[in-house]
Amino acid sequence: MKSTPIQRLASLSVLVILLAASTTFAQSKAAKIDALVQQYVTNRQFNGSVLVAEKGQVIFKKGYGMANMEWNIPNAPDTKFRLGSITKQFTAMLIMQLVEKGKLKLAGKVTDYLPDYPKATGDKITIHHLLTHTSGIPNYTNFPKFFETLSRDPVTPESFTKKFDSMPLDFEPDTKFSYSNSGYFLLGVIIEKVTGKSYADVLTENILKPAQLANTGYDLFSPILPKRATGYEKKNGGYVNSPYLDMTIPYAAGSMYSTVEDLYRWDQALYTDKLLSASGKVTMYTPFLDSYAYGWGVRNAKIGQLKDSLLVIEHTGGINGFNTIISRLPKDKQLVVLLNNTGGAPLSDIRKNILRILYDQPIEAPKKPIADLLRQSVQSDPLEKTKQKLTAWKADKAYNASEEDVNVVGYELLRDGKTKEAITVFTLNAEAYPNSFNVYDSRGEAYKAMGNKAAAIQDYKKSVALNPRNTNGYAMLKELGESVEAPKEVVVAVDSATLASYVGTYQLAPAFSIAIILKADRLFGQATGQPMVELFPESKTKFFLKVVDAQVTFISNDKGEVEQLVLHQNGQDIPGKRMR
């Protein structure tokens, strides 16, 4: 049956209305995202560029603040930012392409491709271990005084591997996750060895050109790069240029630059088989220890009050003066890209709120940081006045007066040589959080810098008493001449049936739960929006974490049914009801 002109007109009118409604809805979300980011900008918590895509289509992109503060050049969607560790996903892609071409094997040993690499470690470390941060190779950016002594001079890839290739492993490969830039640096060296080309050339030929990423590349200091953002860091309430870093040092672990627009093109290319086969991408996105896959963190996350969690594939980056994040939700083809050039922005919080907007969930209003206010008060007000102000800020939900934020101010003052003021801040933190081991560890460091050995020893002893796993505290006490030994962690055996009885989801707050998972007779916990971590039993019902100072206790009812979990952290006991 053919439609009449009137019917066709009516159908067209309905289509126009639906399209208009869809556009208005997207505009509404765009306006909410803009208003949200502007709050962070007002709080001096973001300075950079943003892009958000919904169902594969860009609904918002905008720059905030300055790409160059000295020339008042604003950030824009086509401003080029250093990516830091987002580089790792590109390196992983190059590795997977070489695997598909038969030039590499994921089970291949380092010495298969680098014959001169020390055999003692190179014979047991595989490409897979390097990709998943399970190799045990020490992370070169954690070397003592790395940024002061090693980061400013140019290097060749092969010569720089000599800085870590003969060092003993931190652990046996495949037994633990430990983030290592050294592993991804080594992957770059292997790429060059296998292809006979530079990492930058392989990157351009195999990813940048096919995906049409014209504003992405390997960042070096000397070439003229139009629209390149300058990196800044906060200091004493203002900004300073970030310390110089020679970009041959981050290399395949963190030396790329890009724009939010190009990272959208990258995201779109990943939905095709243009760069890698579908099966190759399945391998690349399969998470291993700590939810880390090949160059990506892969996990399920709760968004607001949504009943079901959603798969999130993402990675963050941080490099002198820059921090970055790219988050992909493949089920709905959602994308959030945040590139910041003032360092230390709370990008995970911003991303979390943007996702809430995309899924029509209420946001958590950004809290105003107290760092500038506290720093000013410590240096100008009497101590009692500062105490009163800090108490008021902690009670006011509009401010973020967390232990961590107060501690940051203390360390800023300590780095500036204002040791007395730093001790004042650390003391305020200790009074506010008396059950936290970290506040005493921090103040002990300040007393040590001042030369007050007795006070430093007292604080470090208090710190290790609160947290016997504070290895830094024991190290400092030894350095101060105390005869102390860190207690050995005692892990007891718990039978499989008991471990299985703990499996489930425990709700500690309306939007915060911990999922307990059993894998090969080992218990793991995954909190909302966080990676999976192993829980180690110190008794049949109490478990401890190694990645942070926290413990978990499982509580049963009179019938022997596990009905509650209690999280012990930062001096608090937070109960969580088991969800049925």
UniProtKB/TrEMBL annotation:
It holds the Pfam family DUF3471. SMART domains: TPR. InterPro entries: AmpC-like (IPR050491), Beta-lactam-related (IPR001466), Beta-lactam/transpept-like (IPR012338), Peptidase_S12_Pab87-rel_C (IPR021860), TPR-like_helical_dom_sf (IPR011990), TPR_rpt (IPR019734). TPR repeats lie at residues 437-470. Residues 490-575 form the Peptidase S12 Pab87-related C-terminal domain. The keyword Hydrolase applies. This is Serine hydrolase. It comes from Spirosoma pollinicola.
